[in-house]
Amino acid sequence: MWESLKEFASWFFVTGDPLIYGAMVSIALTMVAIVFVLTKYKKWGWLWREWLTTVDHKRIGIMYLIASLLMLFRGGVDALLMRVQLAFPNLEFLHSDHYNAIFTTHGTIMILFMAMPMMFGLFNMVVPLQLGARDVAYPFLNAVSFWLFMFGAMLFNLSFVIGGSPDAGWLSYPPLSQNDFSPGPGQNFWIWGIQISGIGSLATGINFIVTILKMRAPGMKLMKMPMFSWSVLSSCIMIIFAFPILTVTIALLYLDRFAGAHFFTMDGGGNPMMYLNLIWMWGHPEVYIVVVPAFGIFSEVVATFAKKKLFGYTSMVIAVMGISILSFFTWAHHFFTMGTSANVIAFFAITTMLIAIPTGVKIFNWLFTMYRGKISFKQPMMWTIAFIPCFVVGGATGVMLAVAPADYQYHNSYFLIAHFHQVLIGGVVFGYLAGIYYWWPKLFGFKLDEKLGAWGFWLWNIGFYVCFMPQYALGFMGMTRRYYTYGWDLGWEPLNLVSTVGAFLMGAGFVFQVWQITYSIKHGERDTTGDPWNGRTLEWSIPSPAPFYNFAVVPQVKELDDFWRVKEEKANGTYKEEPVHLEPIHMPKNSGLPFIMSFCWFIAGFGFVWEWTWMAAIGMVGVALVMWARSFQYDTDYYVPVDEVRRTEASLGRVY
Amino acid sequence: MQQVANNHEHGHAHDHEHGHEDHEQLKVLGFWIFLVTDCILFGSLFATYAVLMHSYAGGPTGKELFELPGVIASTFILLTSSFTSGLAILAMNKGKVKELIGWLVVTALLGLSFIGLEISEFTHLVHEGATMSTSAFWSAFFTLVGTHGVHVSVGLFWMVAIMMQLRRRGLTPVTRRKVTTLSLYWHFLDVVWIFLFTVVYLMGVM
Amino acid sequence: MANHTNHNSHAESHGSLKSYVIGFILSIVLTIIPLVLVMNPLFSKVGTIVAIMIMAVLQFVIQLFFFMHIREGEKPRWNVQTLVLGLVIVLTIVAGSIWIMAFNV
Fold first, then answer.
1. Is the domain of C26 the same as that of C56?
2. Which of A356, A440, C42, C54 measures 20 to 30 Å from A565, CA to CA?
3. How would residue A184 be classed by pLDDT, with cut points 50, 70 and 90?
4. Whole-angstrom Cα distance, residue A280 to residue A265?
5. C52 lies in which domain range?
6. How many domains does chain B have?
């Protein structure tokens, strides 16, 4: 009995690496600490009622944000481990298998479990407020989306201590990701972690499209809608068209592994190249899904901090919406070297270069908005200004990669690595950080400290160029991606060392930001007006932090940047006060079902990962039962009485 | 009408009722968008099938094993069920709950026989030596046709749930919306089957 | 209340028995024609494939109009716009895959 238990544990748990034992101990200690604190201060009920069952978009947004920052930490540690290993030739810090696992989890986590939730966090925190809505179109579904993401992410991260991490690259190309070359559950963790959170992403896409199309405040025509909401619409359109392709692709990969199918195998008529074709049909739109909302954030930030109307609003709308369609016609540039006809390559090279046009339009619009503006260099604006040169260089190297004949030289070299980090960090990360600094006061009621933020900003920025500029050169010198070590004879060691130093500078920047958040909780400047930046859009017209029903009275919109109009009219005395009439507010009720259903998905996913059919079946039956129960639930909403609205507003300093 | 009146519990009944209706309309739009995403899902499976449809790897071909009579029967059964789910909507618009449930029962029985035919077809194919792991062609075939079958089965469960709710609550804005979305889903599945029938079976036996 | 009911049926699906019956009959016809074409080939293989694909698309359009009432509903018709865009993407996925993979099969 004891022997068989020991045997089970030895393949169930990941063993043999001191780094992992250390991580296991720290995970266990953290969990014990959390349970202890919750029990000691009797917070279990609070956690369940206020957070785990919430359908409030702002709270869901905050949970997304916390999860994404934790994932940024894990992905960042992965990055630093890789840079340590590559700092000098022939290092034996990580052995090759461990290195493979780390670059795989780094890529997967940063895109799917860091960028995506941070983006959804910003969607949730901002979009309904910006539109003048009480919540998203489907608050219950919104909670389902979050918990599916959360349990998917947990399933993926579990592979770290149980069963073993996936190690076939962030997109898990077959045949390497097939059973023959990647036996064991690691690859299945990759499939099911992404699959479960992907369903949530798809639902979020539908949710926000309907919210934006149908729930805008009266008078807010589409062409009077703030730019960030436009960018969310563009991103969600890409989500609903791209994510089903991902669902199919990795489901087929799982069928290959689990049911012995022959979609992407080397034998039985399968075709591994079909996997590349399918996954990039999702993968290319995916990078635009995460970067377009960042463009929306920059548009809001630039207009606010230059105190000018956004230059070229219409062209910006066309560019953002155009990109969402164009993004579906460029996927083959990710595998020019795979071997296909010259016509295919020519077509996809041209469509790829076309993308540069709408992107260029946006860059000029931001520059012209700043031109002759009275710019105040607050943190959101700093990140925006840092973004422009960084993204322009990243975009230009992207056009270099689009030149198909030259791509045969660059393909999968460090040149490519430097390129996509430059657009993803320079575009996505800088953008989301700008957005977090910008909207933080609205969610939490205080600003983040400027001084510590400046440390974070400069460390990130200097670190970025120190880390990635050498990698362009390394690419030209012949260093390809995913090398776990290299010899002294290649002449790569100086640039690699510089790159590692840069990575640690960025890591230091992140530490400063964590410090900044913890410091600001106590000492940050309180936002008493609800409008700390002299903003232009509706979210700044309500108190900070926003009450749970958002708007006591639904605003009547007349113009783009309507709150700015109101402030100007008030200043020059032309503002007509309209009689305010409070009404009971219709709100959705909290529900524990999203959490329970996602937990059932987690059980099912864990069963699928280990190919324990009984467990997968139990999980799926659980999912079905919860959906059945939800279908029979009719008492799902309630009305907030006028008295309560008046009391809440009075406590926030607004009298009706 | 009794049931609609029952819903007017609160004081400001009329306003609330309108709010409800807008909300139900919102859900129909969301469901449409979901159906479009499902189109993409089937589109990806069709693309895979199209690329792998001649990769038999020395195994049996579709032409050798497909038996058209059964497939033709399923096609007409599903088409008829799509029609009867439309008749259910007509009954609903006339406010006749019993007739509505009756047509839903007919639709469900047709759907059930469709699934029965599909199961017997799959068993037959497996007996003939064509399984998921026979060749890329058969992997693509079983996945594409099977995914459609799973959709129909889920629709059947959903239909049962809605019939129970209709009996319990009668016609309310909420149950009306549920019947509307269900019938959209059912028509959608028939549309997918038209292409399955054409691309997989008709082209398969040519 | 009567007013209310009208509003309800107005907002949701219209359709008359006549339109459903027409749609049903047309669908049956459009299923039988390709069957006949495949059983007794009149055209070349490519011609038959083109013909039966056209029939399938026609039947899809008919169901869209006669069963799913795509013409009705409030404006702007976001559902129709989403559908059209979705079909463009589906076409891209299928045709693009075939085009790209043609070189490798």
1. yes
2. A440
3. confident
4. 18
5. 6-73
6. 1
**Residue B180: helix, strand or coil by DSSP?**
helix
Instruction: Please name the amino acid found at residue C21.
Output: V
Which distant-in-sequence residues (6+ apart) come within 8 Å of A311 by Cβ? Answer: A365, A366, A368, A369, A371
Name the minimum distance, in Å, from the CA of C33 to any CA of chain B: 11
Q: Please state the domain count of chain C.
A: 2
**A323 CB within 8 Å of a chain C CB:** no
What is the per-residue DSSP string for B121-148? Answer: HHHHHHHTT--TTT-HHHHHHHHHHHHH
Strand partners, C30: none
Query: In which domain, by residue range, is B124 found?
Result: 2-205
For residues A134 and A90, what is the distance between their CA atoms, to the nearest angstrom?
58
Whether residues C37 and C67 fall in one domain: yes
Structural domain includes residue C1: no
Residue for token pair 């400069």: A458
d(CA C105, CA C103): 6
Supply the pLDDT for residue C42.
81
Q: Nearest CB to B33: which of C14, C52, C82?
A: C82
Residue A459 has pLDDT above 90, yes or no: yes
B13 at C interface, C-beta within 8 A: no
Band (pLDDT 50/70/90 cuts) for residue B19 is low
Chain A contact probe: residue of B8, B17, B126, B133 with most A CBs at under 10 A: B133
Asked whether the beta carbons of residue A325 and residue C93 sit closer than 8 angstroms, the reply is: no
The pLDDT of residue A517 is above 80: yes
Domain architecture of chain A: domains with CATH = 42-591+636-652 (1.20.210.10)
Distance CA A440, CA A121 (A): 11
How do residues A623-650 score in pLDDT, each as one tens digit?
Answer: 999 999 999 999 889 999 999 999 999 9
